[in-house]
């Protein structure tokens, strides 16, 4: 059963290097070259699911561009982990709420690596509010502009460079399917991401670009001590059938599968690493 030390971070976004215990990002198996020669962009790639995905992709042969807001220490650590796996790594700091930043980031990656094969839309924002009336215009705008506008902007920019065989993987959430009474705006954006994933899969089918999603349940990432009070953190994840929170590397395995040619017959689908919660597909 989950039993984390009570902890809280006042900083938004949260920081992985201040978490206790540190999340488990490490891939569990040796690489087999499943992404050899590929270039990937991962938004929110500095920590949590993004870090685990970056390291996993690098182990499988990819070069990785890590987009992040301002968590410099976490980002530098992730860059070093990617390079330790033998991949090239690039850090690009900025805000996916800006269409101009998204466009410039993609152009920078393509100029440096020569191409783009995989886009992982992962950056997100959440704030808990128990009453809908407590959600301010500022919070609503920040949540939607980060969680769904950013996915649109990054995908729009990437489409100028993605070729047949490319893959887009969007991180949605179990809350897209079951809702969450204190994450109403966040859950709404995650529902939009699920619909965006299915729509783009159909839109890009003839171009042979696959678009899929991953809908994690409770995962031990910097979101948690940042968004929750210390006592709630201590019991985080205990509500799911497996009675524990997941680790980022348990989600990254799903993203790796969908990004690789192992998932060549998957498009418009969502995988559910959520600790056993049964939801509609």
TrEMBL record:
Region (Disordered) location: 1-33
Keywords attached to this entry: Oxidoreductase
The organism of origin for this protein: Aureimonas pseudogalii
A GO term, aspect molecular function: oxidoreductase activity, acting on CH-OH group of donors
Protein name: NAD(P)-dependent dehydrogenase (Short-subunit alcohol dehydrogenase family)
InterPro entries in UniProt: NAD(P)-bd_dom_sf, Sc_DH/Rdtase_CS, SDR_fam
Basic and acidic residues composition bias: residue spans: 8-25
UniProt similarity note: Belongs to the short-chain dehydrogenases/reductases (SDR) family.
């Amino acid at each position: 059963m989950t039993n984390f030390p009570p902890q809280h971070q006042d900083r938004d976004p949260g920081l992985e290097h201040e978490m206790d215990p540190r999340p488990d990002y490490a891939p569990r198996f040796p690489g087999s070259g499943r992404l050899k020669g590929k270039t990937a962009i991962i938004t929110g790639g500095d920590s949590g699911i993004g870090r685990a995905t970056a390291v996993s992709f690098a182990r499988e042969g990819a070069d990785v561009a890590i987009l992040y807001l301002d968590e410099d220490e976490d980002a530098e650590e992730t860059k070093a982990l990617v390079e330790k796996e033998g991949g090239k790594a690039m850090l690009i700091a900025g805000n996916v709420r800006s269409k101009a930043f998204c466009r410039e980031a993609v152009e920078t990656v393509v100029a440096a690596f020569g191409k783009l094969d995989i886009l992982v839309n992962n950056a997100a924002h959440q704030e808990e509010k128990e009453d809908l009336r407590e959600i301010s215009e500022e919070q609503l705008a920040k949540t939607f502009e980060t969680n769904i506008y950013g996915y649109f902007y990054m995908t729009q920019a990437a489409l100028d460079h993605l070729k047949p065989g490319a893959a887009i993987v969007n991180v949605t959430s179990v809350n897209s399917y079951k809702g969450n009474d204190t994450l109403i705006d966040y859950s709404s954006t995650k529902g939009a991401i699920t619909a965006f994933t299915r729509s783009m899969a159909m839109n890009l089918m003839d171009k042979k670009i696959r678009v899929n999603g991953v809908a994690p349940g409770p995962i031990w990432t910097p979101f948690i001590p940042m968004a929750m009070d210390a006592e709630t953190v201590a019991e985080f994840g205990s509500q799911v059938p497996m009675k524990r929170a997941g680790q980022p590397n348990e989600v990254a395995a799903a993203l790796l599968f969908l990004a690789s040619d192992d998932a060549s017959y998957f498009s418009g689908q969502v995988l559910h690493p959520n600790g056993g919660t049964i939801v509609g597909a």
